[in-house]
Amino acid sequence: MLKFISFGSGSSGNCYLLTTKTDTLLIDIGVGLRGLKKACRDYGVSLSGVHHVLVTHDHADHIKSVGSFSSDYRVPVYATREVHQGIVRNYCVVKKVPADLVRVVEKGVTLQLGDFTVTPFAVPHDSTDNVGYYIEAGGTNFCLITDAGHVTDEMNLFISKAHHLVIEANHDIEMVQNGPYPQFLKDRILSGTGHLNNHDCGVAIAEHMTESLRNVWLCHLSEENNHPELARKTVESVLRSYGIVAGADIHLEVLKRTTPTGPFELD
After folding, report:
1. Is the torsion defined by CA of 133, 160, 117, 142 positive or negative?
2. Rounded to whole angstroms, how far apart are CA atoms 175 and 104?
3. Burial state string for 136-155 with b = 16 or more CB within 10 A and e = fewer than 16
4. What is the DSSP letter of 78?
5. Partners of 18 in the beta sheet?
6. β strands within 67-173, DSSP E
């Protein structure tokens, strides 16, 4: 049985946990280490059981505590070479990943990490580099796609394989266009290397999901340009236009921005 917990999903910090009966990994550690420790105690999760850390990209809300965690718990950190270089350069990462715990992954190359079979794949974003992760364990699979400026054919391929999917629904386009952000920031968010909007997220799910997809979690919602109920309703509406009913055909949920969501048992 695979279990999933989100410890935070948004610009304030991102961190996701997957665990089997014998192995545990984290994807991104952009939340504070003290808060992560408390959340794990509340859930009865031992951080000493975490054997692998995967990093999507080098923006601070995904890597702020990765060096501290890696140093304190002596856990290797897996990321592309460019992302590791970005972690070294990022001043928000006060304690860097120890050199002996740096592990390099390549997009499209599958690797075995304990109980987990992991395939990184490219996701377009204005970071040094960015990947999604397709993870197989215990007869099921899990796919995470975050900070995506647009949806690519490769991303669609992994959506079509997924049993359980975490995918970005960052913003509502009209809220961005009519909001208080300066124009350069609006342009960045709406660009092909910015963030995925609610509607396009729904289309990606609807056009490429299969009957094997059981759970979808919407992640990385903007605090200023989105709302959990708006994201859910927009995606539900798009799915319904394709004849897919959330709650009947798939389970759809929104991950909380600053507090944990879960745990979820994934079979």
Report:
1. positive
2. 38
3. bbeebbbbbbbbbbbbbeeb
4. E
5. 4, 25
6. 77-79, 102-104, 111-113, 116-122, 131-137, 140-145, 164-168
Distance between CA atoms of 209 and 43, rounded to whole angstroms?
31
Q: Note the pLDDT of residue 1.
A: 82
Q: Could you report the per-residue pLDDT of 231-240, keeping only the tens digit for each?
A: 999 999 999 9
Tokens for 36? Answer: 């992560």
Name residues of the chain where pLDDT drops below 70. none
Instruction: State how beta strands 2-8 and 111-113 pair.
Output: unpaired
Two structure tokens written together for 179: 């909001």
Partnered with residue 154 across adjacent β-strands are none
Reading the block at residue 180, the tokens are: 């208080």
Query: In angstroms, how far is CA 168 from the centroid of its own chain?
Result: 8
Structure tokens at 118: 């992991």
Q: What is the DSSP string of 212-254?
A: T--EEEEE---SSS--HHHHHHHHHHHHHHTT--BTTTBEEEE
State how far the Cα of 45 lies from the Cα of 41, in Å rounded to an integer: 6
pTM (2 d.p.): 0.97
**pLDDT confidence of residue 143:** 98
Pairing of strands 50-54, 261-266: unpaired
Please report which helix (H) or strand (E) contains residue 175, including its range. Answer: helix 173-178
Residue type, 145: I
Cα(178)–Cα(267) distance, integer angstroms: 42
Q: What's the N-to-C CA distance of the chain in angstroms?
A: 6
The 10 Å Cβ neighbour count of residue 63 is 27
* Beta strand 251-254 pairing with 215-219: parallel
Cα(31)–Cα(190) distance, rounded to whole angstroms? 25
